[in-house]
Amino acid sequence: MEKNQRSKGCSSEATLNQFGQAIAELRVEVAGGFARLGERLVRVDERLAGVDERLAGVDGRLAGMDGRLAGMDERLAGVDEQFAAARQEIRDGDEQTRSQMRLLIDSVRDDVRIFAEAHIALEQRLTTLDRRAH
């Protein structure tokens, strides 16, 4: 019986030693994983810094767009005034005015189309940059 207890004791020690080795190997693997994760995080930080720089450039361009949009607002206000005057002339029945009105409407339609296309393009660019940032 004493021999059985000794062999159980040796077996338990061997099992503990194997368990300890397995834990040590696991710790090495986990440490390596954390090191790789840390390296990836550094690369992600670098990429995000680049994205931040590009976004700063986009902010500058957007500020320029704001200025141009303000100019468009002024132009549109002028067009509104022209429309009011043209409406009055149309009421008076002047055929020449009606012809000019058609030209003005076509011009405004083109302006609105250009403005809408620019707005859509800007939104697409911002969406693309936003996706890249995430």
Descriptive tags:
mainly alpha; 96% helix; 134 residues
Brief digest:
This protein is mainly α. It has 2 helices and no strands.
Note down, in words, how this protein is organized:
The protein is mostly helical. The protein has one domain. The chain contains 2 helices and no strands. The chain has helices spanning 2-91, 95-133. The longest helix has 90 residues, at 2-91. The two termini are 68 Å apart. The relative contact order is 0.06. The model has no long low-confidence stretch (mean pLDDT 85).
Task: Note the topology.
Elements: H1 2-91, H2 95-133
Strand share of the residues? Answer: under 5%
Taken in chain order, the helices and strands follow as: HH
Helical stretch tally: 2
Q: What structural class do the secondary elements suggest?
A: mainly alpha
Gyration radius from CA atoms, angstroms: 37 Å
How many domains, in number, for the residues?
1
Mean pLDDT: 85
Task: Name the helicity range.
Answer: over 70%
Q: Judging from the principal axes of the Cα atoms, what is the shape?
A: rod-shaped
**Total number of β-strand segments?**
0
Low-confidence stretches: none
End-to-end Cα distance, whole Å, is 68 Å
| Major β-sheet annotation | none
